[in-house]
Design a protein that fits this description.
The protein is 0% helix and 31% strand. With 94 residues, the chain is mostly beta strands.
């Protein structure tokens, strides 16, 4: 789980575990989630079956969940200090 500089909280789940790959991996039980506020339950975004871009992991480029032309549903840099989140077809997240 991650908290951004504006207090937003996000996270992801990958049952396959994280390891470096040259392409997307994982299963349709992967998901991303967000919290409206710290005391609320998480809002999950499950696989939409629109594509299978569940998880991508690289020592040099970071970790990404889901994909879109702009970036990932949830992306974390290799240093774990920066990231981004965009709506994706993979998880139909907002």
């Amino acid at each position: 789980m991650i908290q951004d500089s504006e207090g937003g909280m996000f996270g992801a789940y990958c049952s396959d575990g994280l390891s470096t790959h040259n392409s997307f991996f994982g299963f349709s039980d992967s998901l991303v989630f967000k919290f409206k506020n710290p005391s609320s339950p998480p809002i999950p975004f499950t696989a939409s079956q629109m594509n299978n871009h569940y998880v991508w992991c690289s020592n040099m480029s970071g970790i990404g969940f889901g994909s879109t032309e702009e970036g990932y549903a949830l992306y974390i840099s290799p240093t774990l200090s920066t990231g981004h989140s965009y709506p994706s077809l993979t998880f139909n997240n907002s």
